[in-house]
Specification:
The structure holds two protein chains of two kinds. Chain A has twelve helices and ten strands. Chain A is of the alpha+beta class. Chain A folds into two domains: 225 residues, no CATH class; 50 residues, no CATH class. In chain A, the strands form four sheets. A two-stranded antiparallel ribbon of chain A has the order 1-2. A two-stranded antiparallel ribbon of chain A has the order 5-6. In chain A, strands 7-8 form a two-stranded antiparallel sheet. In chain A, a hairpin with a 2-residue loop joins strand 9 and strand 10. The N terminus and C terminus of chain A are likely disordered. Chain B has a single domain, classed as Galactose-binding domain-like (Jelly Rolls), CATH 2.60.120. Classes of the chains: A alpha+beta, B mainly beta.
Chain lengths: 325, 156
């Protein structure tokens, strides 16, 4: 890939609309607006690929936010792009510059950057939703697939042999192309394919040269995956004994059958004979037998030598004889 | 002496195996309003988080010392109809931990069930979190379709 980031021409993006953000969670370290006031007001500026990347992802061409590496309750509130590594940011700077040169709508790069950030952010804790991880509320297994077009593109990319030599982290590409992890991806897979097939050489691939293909951004919206629901119920659940809904306890019919009831707002089990109770009553009983047997043992008569012998002896007459003795 | 030890071991085994194990089951449902998310000029919104914290008072009184086994998590996720896209993660935090132990991508607007967190302990201090990242038209306010809730089912 041959990109001269220092001469890329950037037409400044400016949005003058005032956006009032009402949300319970704002990003702690991210500038909210893309408006880049550091650029001249002529509307036409020269900006590096890095400036373009920073402007698009962090709202200011001069921004250089800290690279987040730890997923915490604080960083969960940040946009995933805050987790992009230094190498990611360099790679994306090149992609932005290349996209700008070729007339590719920069939103395609934005989407790729966000998905890569999501991978960096969640890779270590994310479960694969297709590994038996999702059921509907009646116990039917649900799995996720990409749309037919995306499935075909994903298969083509995975079989291309170009993943390891592309500018993208192979781990990310595999994550991105696995619907169990990224069925709700933002990246346009055709654009992803064009980036991967531009194998890092100095040549711009045919696909990458087709600027018209990505010159106008079309969001895939929410239609880039399919939910498959199995016909058979494989997750069998039972009604709990006791439920607590937003702090209010109640006993279900199942719970009532098991002897639970509400007394003064508290859940109690009437006539409860719990496992610990049963065991606490029963163990001494067995111990009693054993110790009785020990006493018999000390008497020196014909007797079972151990508790096992005692409890499992087929010679009932002998057993009772010993007890009697 | 050895005979006695063997006998005591057998005694314990017999005592614990003689009675069928039965579990008491319960569930805790937590409901919370999903946030309205303002879409910024770059077409993305601030991350929307909904948190569900499990307190000791969520369990029946007198059971605090009992070890609960998580058997299922049910969830009702809000959709954002006006959004162009909505990436949703459901995460499970171990008691009083700052980092999630595990997350799973879930479908926007879904009412589903997952056993994905069943290997983790359930006790006071556990937290579940729903995280939305949406895109849409700049300057609009994306309204959630409904409240969000999680239900954890357990036995002890």
């Amino acid at each position: 890939m041959n990109i001269n980031t220092s001469t890329s021409t950037y037409k400044k993006l400016q949005n003058n609309s005032d956006v009032t953000v009402k949300s319970t969670n704002l990003q702690p370290s991210q500038t909210n607006l893309v408006k880049d006031t550091s650029l001249p007001s002529s509307g036409q500026s020269t900006i590096s690929g890095q400036g373009l990347m920073m402007s698009r992802l962090f709202g200011n061409a001069d921004a250089n936010p800290t690279i987040q590496t730890t997923l915490t309750k604080d960083t969960m509130a940040m946009q995933s792009v805050n987790f992009l590594t230094k190498d990611d940011r360099n790679m994306l700077s090149d992609l932005y510059a290349q996209a700008q040169q070729e007339g590719t709508d920069l939103s395609y790069v934005d989407d790729l950057a966000n998905d890569l950030g999501t991978y960096r952010m969640f890779n270590h804790v994310m479960a694969n939703a297709n590994n038996g991880g999702t059921y509907d509320n009646t116990g039917h297994l649900q799995t996720f697939s990409f749309s037919a077009d995306d499935t075909a593109t994903a298969t083509r990319i995975l079989n291309s042999g170009n993943i390891s030599s592309s500018v993208l982290d192979p781990g990310f590409v595999k994550y991105e192309l696995d619907p169990g992890y990224s069925f709700a991806h933002r990246t346009n897979f055709a654009y992803l394919e064009s980036v991967i097939n531009n194998t890092g050489s100095n040549e711009i691939s045919t696909e990458q040269g087709q600027t018209s293909k990505f010159s106008t951004y079309v969001s895939q919206g929410k239609n880039n995956f399919v939910v498959n629901t199995a016909s058979e119920v494989t997750l069998h659940t039972e009604e709990p004994d006791v439920v607590n809904v937003d702090g209010v306890f109640s006993v279900t019919e199942t719970g009532m059958k098991h002897g639970f009831q509400l007394v003064g707002g508290k859940v109690v089990q009437k006539n409860a004979v719990s496992m610990p109770d049963i065991q606490s009553q029963s163990v001494p009983s067995l111990l009693d037998n054993f110790t009785s047997n020990e006493k018999i043992e000390k008497s020196g008569h014909d007797r079972p030598a151990t508790l096992f012998d005692y409890h499992f002896s087929k010679d009932e007459d002998k057993k009772f004889k010993n007890i009697d003795a | 002496m050895n005979k006695k030890l063997v006998s005591l071991s057998l005694l314990f085994a017999a005592a614990t195996a003689s009675f069928p194990a039965f579990a008491i089951t319960g569930s805790i449902t937590k409901t919370s309003a999903a946030p309205t998310i303002g879409i910024l000029s770059n077409g993305t919104g601030p991350v929307g988080l909904t948190n569900f914290f499990i307190n000791s008072s969520d369990f029946p009184s007198g059971t605090a010392s009992k070890t609960k086994t998580l058997t299922l998590v049910r969830y009702n996720i809000a959709a954002y109809p006006s959004a162009s896209s909505d990436l949703v993660q459901l995460c499970y935090y171990l008691p009083f931990q700052a980092s999630p132990a595990k997350c799973v991508t879930v479908n926007s607007g879904a009412s589903s069930t997952t056993p994905a967190f069943n290997s983790y302990e359930l006790k006071s201090g556990v937290e579940l979190q729903v995280r939305h990242t949406i895109t849409g038209s700049a300057g609009t306010q994306a309204q959630p379709s409904r409240q969000e809730s999680v239900t954890v089912e357990y036995s002890y």
